[in-house]
Amino acid sequence: MYQEIIDKKAKVAVIGLGYVGLPIALEFAKKVSVIGFDINEKRIKMMEQGIDPSNELEKEAFENCDIVFTTSLDVLREARFFIVAVPTPVDEHNVPELTPVKKASETIGKVVKKGDYVVFESTVYPGCTEEDCLPIIEKLSGLKFCTDFKLGYSPERINPGDKKHTLPNIIKVVSGCDEESLDNIAKVYEIVVQAGVHKASSIKVAEAAKIIENTQRDLNIALMNELSIIFDKMNINTFEVLEAAGTKWNFLNFRPGLVGGHCIGVDPYYLTYKASELGYNSRVILAGRHINDNMANYLARKVVRHIISHVSDVKSAKVLVMGATFKENVSDIRNSKVADVVKELKEFYLNVDVVDPHADGEELMHEYGFGLSDGIGDDYDAVIITVCHEDYAALDEKYFTSITKPTAIIADLKGIYRGKIKNRQYWSF
């Protein structure tokens, strides 16, 4: 299979062209023939014009690429090596929502042929690829896994907004259903991954490796968030404490903050869900999730208490929220905890303006029920800087003084203005 792909006698297909799938498809398309498949025709048309719907890649990324973008199963059927990179969210009860990955499996089942390879990259719990996805493919295709087609799993490591840790220079974990498939899958990914690959002993090991990467980060951030709550009660600045502790060589560099997005705030629930199915109720992981999921509420109430003590008519109070995306310098609003902050503030009947240089107002309105403000006023009772966009780095005390009342609070979640705000009450996590 590897040699056929190199010789362009076999095509690679990427199913799902979002934040994960599109960079993978374009990277392969620089070296081999690729089919980019997505069910969203609007997105396909944008990519045909060299536009990344996720606003992550520049037009140059599409240049000199041997790729066809399509919604057609007939075109997709021309591929021999299929990579599935669809989203795996959770529902409102934090239960894994496997519909996208199951639908992708149905698509694979309709086009896979004898001798083909199927590799999943979507983040799932250990066992999902073989227990949930594989039966769908076998049923629809009438083919036998490992005998008629090969199956593998290679967890994605795409980090939105990160221009340093990109696909070519991050070690890629790969796995297969047998030694032959493992070897071929590794060789195919080595076409585009300069950093090399790590061969996992099984598909389940590779799935588990991915799920604990983000679970570990989630727990470390949860610890920082709990510490920030404790230190706030002691009137100690958490960032100053972390700077001091960070002088020790083995202190881990984590910071408090809102934990959203499609990875850290979601992936741990996949693991705890599977553990629960097996009769084990997670304690540590869910405790961390509880802390992180409640930080938006904690922040909003901190601001509300300040307003109540300084504004006679709370319903007339105005709050400016700066930043709506789930992290800095990206347009991605998926699972943004800023939405929870805005919702909580509005439950106290506060007037909330939201601005963000990267977010799309229509997308916010569709997803969360609020859009972006047309402009910024000059009489806010509170300003909350939720996301550390580069656009905010040059702002100073003069700016915040010009848009706030003398009694206002500046809630700087990331501590980027620490030591710079003197004539307004300043607070950070």
Brief write-up:
This protein has 429 residues and is an alpha/beta fold. The chain has 15 helices and 13 strands.
Description:
This protein has 429 residues and is an alpha/beta fold. It folds into 2 domains: 2-211, Rossmann fold, CATH 3.40.50; 294-427, Rossmann fold, CATH 3.40.50. It has 15 helices and 13 strands. The protein has helices at 2-6, 21-29, 41-48, 73-76, 99-111, 128-141, 179-190, 203-233, 238-245, 267-277, 284-293, 295-310, 338-346, 361-368, 397-402; strands spanning 11-15, 34-37, 67-70, 79-84, 117-120, 150-153, 172-176, 197-199, 318-322, 351-355, 380-385, 404-412, 425-427. Strands 3-2-1-4-5-6-7-8 form an 8-stranded mixed β-sheet, sandwiched between helices. A 5-stranded parallel β-sheet has the order 10-9-11-12-13. Helix 8 (203-233) crosses helix 10 (267-277). The longest helix has 31 residues, at 203-233. It is elongated.
